[in-house]
């Protein structure tokens, strides 16, 4: 039986993939077409937890509240193989899941798109701040793509993580990275090694990843941060009763 899956699919980018240097360089993808799209039912957030002291959080989307702006981004028309490249280079399914949603073009037309959302939900109170480097990719990508001015202002006004300058904090960051940077490299290489034809890793790898992520952020929140200072941009006096839900 022949597959009914379309040869090309619209992929909605709302994070660093809005930047042409990322989508064509890092992802090695050449879109056939592109257009500005919003997702009326979703808002931008930073609920993809990553590595404290360097890249604490990455962009995600969640259901939009009435007083929030919808997320804007760029829809790229990609081949099935290029969409798999996106999945693989975004972690092979350890952080994101692919969903189908209905977007709206700048002209008001409806457009069905594939996009990435957090595989595991992190509540807003537990989300962390993106790095200045990562946020600059979103801001530059939005400017390059001519997203609406008010949305560009929203991005430019977002809270970000900035490294602290004290010697105690720098020592703490060094100690943390000695432990966790090699592990993050192992996870990255392992996700590429164990991916399937759709670009996703098996369930056993996801279990290991979830455990590693939980232990790393527990180490940060309850051991590292009280002694050396936080590495996620949040306030020092905040309490985190749980890491993931």
UniProtKB/TrEMBL annotation:
SUPFAM superfamilies: Gamma-glutamyl cyclotransferase-like. The keyword Lyase applies. The active site is at residue 90. Keywords: Lyase. It is an enzyme of class 4 (lyase). Substrate binds at residues 11-16, 134. It comes from the Eukaryota. GO terms for molecular function: gamma-glutamylcyclotransferase activity. This is gamma-glutamylcyclotransferase. It comes from Clohesyomyces aquaticus.
């Amino acid at each position: 039986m022949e597959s009914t899956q379309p040869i090309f699919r619209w992929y909605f980018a709302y994070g660093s993939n809005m930047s042409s240097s990322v989508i064509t360089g890092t992802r090695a993808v050449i879109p056939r077409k592109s257009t500005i799209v919003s997702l009326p039912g979703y808002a931008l957030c930073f609920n993809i937890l990553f590595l404290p002291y360097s890249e604490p959080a990455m962009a995600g989307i969640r259901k939009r509240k009435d007083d929030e702006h919808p997320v804007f981004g760029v829809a790229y028309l990609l081949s099935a193989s290029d969409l798999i490249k996106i999945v693989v280079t975004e972690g092979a399914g350890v952080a994101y899941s692919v969903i189908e949603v209905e977007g709206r073009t700048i002209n008001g037309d409806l457009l069905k798109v594939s996009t990435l959302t957090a595989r595991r939900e992190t509540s807003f109170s537990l989300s962390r701040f993106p790095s200045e480097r990562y946020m600059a990719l979103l801001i530059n990508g939005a400017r390059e793509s001519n997203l609406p001015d008010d949305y560009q202002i929203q991005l430019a006004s977002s809270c970000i993580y900035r490294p602290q300058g004290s010697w105690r904090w720098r020592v703490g960051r060094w100690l943390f990275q000695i432990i966790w940077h090699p592990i993050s490299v192992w996870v990255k290489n392992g996700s590429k090694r164990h991916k399937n034809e759709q670009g996703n890793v098996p369930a056993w790898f996801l279990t290991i990843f979830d455990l590693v992520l939980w232990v790393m952020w527990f180490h940060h929140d309850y051991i590292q941060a009280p002694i050396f200072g936080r590495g996620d941009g949040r306030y020092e006096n905040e309490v985190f009763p749980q890491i993931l839900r």
